[in-house]
């Protein structure tokens, strides 16, 4: 793993260019440990293949970077710079001397109040999350084909597509969040929801049919060939042969698909209900597990009070968080009830007609009896 920052960086891409509010004399060597940690965290999010592209670009001289490479490197390095600084700054507020930790007090500077530090820490956290969101959006929407297709083919991206709620738009249709990062962070809750709430209601067979449908509809994105090899005529011939072979495979797959007697078609109304329940379930799950800084300002309503804290707000005592969790949980339960009612209606509609038994109009009468009189 290579570090994407060094002291000799050009002034257009050095640490100061990402953190305009820091002093220019901040020694980057002081942040090396935090930069390394933040880099490892970023690799876990975007994957090694995407990060390898950034490493290869960073090995070149800055003057040789193309415009799309400069843009890509900005989005890759920005969250590393912000996260490493927010990890470093709390310890840097104190002087760590041979005689223990001391309070820094330079001439012409005043020590901040605790609420100022708390507010700045939250601002840095939000800035970091925005940088990650910007990066994820860039990876999906960029015109840099090598980067875009590497990301869209990666396991880190594909694992977000195996649940009923798989896009930001799916989430926004129920609760406006506009965040790919939040969608990524909520993956464990979607898995839990489907296993505990949906699978028992749909039965294993139907549930697996939906999962197979999601998996089979994942698109594969071709990676561009290296430009240096495209000049070789043999490479061009190999490319043409690969194209012909792929077309043959596609034709065979098309014939195979047409020969299948049954093609699974998802029930759109059912899927809509499941998505609504899943989003509210995920938000309820997140209230007590994820940082509130991830979410929009209005998701938790803080009350201003005469009793001041370091944040100049009334202590929540977890009441707002618990109230939000219960509200989302109640909303999810209401959609789960609608799912059960919908499944019962479908079951009744598909049930075979009841067999009508003949009615005996003369019960317990023996026509051959001597006492029988018509």
Secondary structure elements and pairings:
Layout: H1 15-18, H2 32-46, H3 48-58, H4 67-92, E1 94-97, E2 100-103, H5 114-141, H6 145-152, H7 155-158, H8 168-172, H9 180-185, H10 187-202, H11 204-216, H12 233-259, H13 268-287, H14 319-350
Helix pairs in contact: 2-3, 2-4, 3-4, 4-5, 5-6, 10-11, 10-13, 10-14, 13-14
Would you give an account of this structure?
The longest helix has 32 residues, at 319-350. The chain is an all-alpha fold and 374 residues long. The chain starts with 14 loop residues before the first helix and ends in a 24-residue tail after the last helix. α4 packs antiparallel against α5. It has 14 helices and 2 strands. The chain has a two-stranded antiparallel ribbon with strand order 1-2. 57% of the residues lie in helices and 2% in strands. The chain has helices at residues 15-18, 32-46, 48-58, 67-92, 114-141, 145-152, 155-158, 168-172, 180-185, 187-202, 204-216, 233-259, 268-287, 319-350; strands spanning 94-97, 100-103.
What labels would you give this structure?
374 residues; mainly alpha; 57% helix
Oligomer: single chain
- Low-pLDDT sequence parts: 226-234, 302-308
Mean pLDDT: 80
Number of helical regions? 14
């Amino acid at each position: 793993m290579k570090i994407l920052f060094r002291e000799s960086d050009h002034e257009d891409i050095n640490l100061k260019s990402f953190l305009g509010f820091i002093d220019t004399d901040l020694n980057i060597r002081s942040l090396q440990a935090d930069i390394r940690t933040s880099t490892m965290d970023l690799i876990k999010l975007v994957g090694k293949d995407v990060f390898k592209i950034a490493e290869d670009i960073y090995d070149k001289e800055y003057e040789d970077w193309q415009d799309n490479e400069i843009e890509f490197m900005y989005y890759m390095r920005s969250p590393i710079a912000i996260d490493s600084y927010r990890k470093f700054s709390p310890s840097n507020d104190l002087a760590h001397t041979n005689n223990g930790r001391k309070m820094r007090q330079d001439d012409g500077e005043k020590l901040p109040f605790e609420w100022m530090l708390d507010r700045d820490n939250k601002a840095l956290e939000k800035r970091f999350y925005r940088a990650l969101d910007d990066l994820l959006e860039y990876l999906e929407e960029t015109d840099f084909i090598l980067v875009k297709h590497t990301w869209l083919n990666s396991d880190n991206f594909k694992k977000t597509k195996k649940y009923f709620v798989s896009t930001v738009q799916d989430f926004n249709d129920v609760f406006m969040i506009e965040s790919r990062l939040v969608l990524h962070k909520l993956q464990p809750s979607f898995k839990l929801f489907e296993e505990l709430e949906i699978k028992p209601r749909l039965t294993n067979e139907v549930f697996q049919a939906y999962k197979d449908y999601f998996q089979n509809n994942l698109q594969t994105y071709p990676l561009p060939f290296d430009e240096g090899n495209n000049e070789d005529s043999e490479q061009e011939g190999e490319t043409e042969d690969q194209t012909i072979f792929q077309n043959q495979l596609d034709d065979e797959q098309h014939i195979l698909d047409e020969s299948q007697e049954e093609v699974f078609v998802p029930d759109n109304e059912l899927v809509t209900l499941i998505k609504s329940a899943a989003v509210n379930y995920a938000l309820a799950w997140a209230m007590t597990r994820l940082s509130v800084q991830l979410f929009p300002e209005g998701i938790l309503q803080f009350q201003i009070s005469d009793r001041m804290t370091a944040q100049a707000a009334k202590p929540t005592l977890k009441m707002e968080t618990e109230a939000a969790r219960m509200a989302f949980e109640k909303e999810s339960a209401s959609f789960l009830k609608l799912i059960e009612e919908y499944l019962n209606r479908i079951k009744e509609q598909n049930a075979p007609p009841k067999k009508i038994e003949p009615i005996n109009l003369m019960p317990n009468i023996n026509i051959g009896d001597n006492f029988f009189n018509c």
